[in-house]
Design brief:
Aminopeptidase; 21 strands; Alpha-Beta Plaits; 2 domains; 419 residues; 9 helices; 4-stranded antiparallel beta sheet
Length: 419
Amino acid sequence: MQISIEHTAHHIVREISTLSQNALHFTQTLLRQESITPQDAGCQQWIAKHLQSLGFETEIYKAQGVTNFIACYSGIENDIDQPCLAFAGHTDVVPAGQVESWKLHPFAAHQDSGKLYGRGVADMKGGIGAFLAAITQVFQVQTTQKSSIQKNNQRYDCPKLKLPKMMVLLTSDEEGEAAFGTRTIVDKLKQRQAKIDLCIVGEPTTRYQLGDTFKVGRRGAISGQCTVYGKQGHVAYPQSGDNAVHKMAKVLNALLEIEWDSGTEQCPGTTFQITGIDSGVQTDNMIPAQCHIYFNVRYSHAWTEADLHQVFEKTIQSVTSDVELSWERPCQPYLTTNESMLKFVENSLHKSTGIQAIRSTSGGTSDGRFLHEVADCVVELGLNASTIHQINEHVAISELEQLAKVYFDLIQDFARRGK
């Protein structure tokens, strides 16, 4: 059969149109579900039904009120060495805040002036919708792809693309404590000895233009509380008391003098920030017997959690022994060092967008820290992050459509790449 350039061009245009339409439709469907952490509100059930129609096996389970989702496509039969591509993310969103302050209702998925509004559209239901559109298009191409073409009276074989193993991993508790979400998914994958070659986390990473930045890691984070004890007394007789706030001031000075690392080109340095201070005293004639500070440390790969504990304990003990120190919400850092796979991602992005992407580790924590345990390469790649968690969160519809194309190209390039 003779295939004309006009026919091929028409086919490509039709594919792009379908991809764009699906990206918008899928995202709007998800946005209309009020899945505020840790609620999923039926998002994963809808996703499961769609992926099952493509040949995925799906599993939804609950852990301490958190809804988690694992979908697997086996790829080429009897090929145990085939590579595995995963997409990971979360269906939960932060609260919308004052609904009346929104330009458009946060759970109506309305469009206005080329933008799509809704709580979680950037963080990160848009990423999920774009990937679902991409993977749907990949399977559609598989079913319509010609086995051969004829050109200049010669027939050329065009074998179908051999799809790799694929996974979709979702949780409804990324924005919360994250103790029973992706952490439990990774534990299940470990038990099943699952191995992922490339995991794409659909968190928002774009700074100015889609594809300009992707994240290859994140700093660690940990929060702490320090309580210094003194002796209560009357302010007119300071010799009879021991002011806990004054002692805490000395502790703070010592902590603020710690020299942290300044980071590297890829990873910002370690920072220490006081987030609260409280003596509990509500009157101006009493010497406080206690003073509490609350703080957070964002730390680079130059430190471990144990190192931080030791530094803080040593520094504080050098000032006073009348103290208690406690820690909470530890988040381990992660950094992808698989240069071959990172280059592959860069090349695919450049081919798809024409942009040379920057590698980054900026921002807060993400579930990439858990996925790093089962994936050779974890990268975060998604929409613009400028309005996340804000009133009137939105993304450009053109950017959403472009992300679907980027994901589509990545899947196909990964399939061609092989091991």
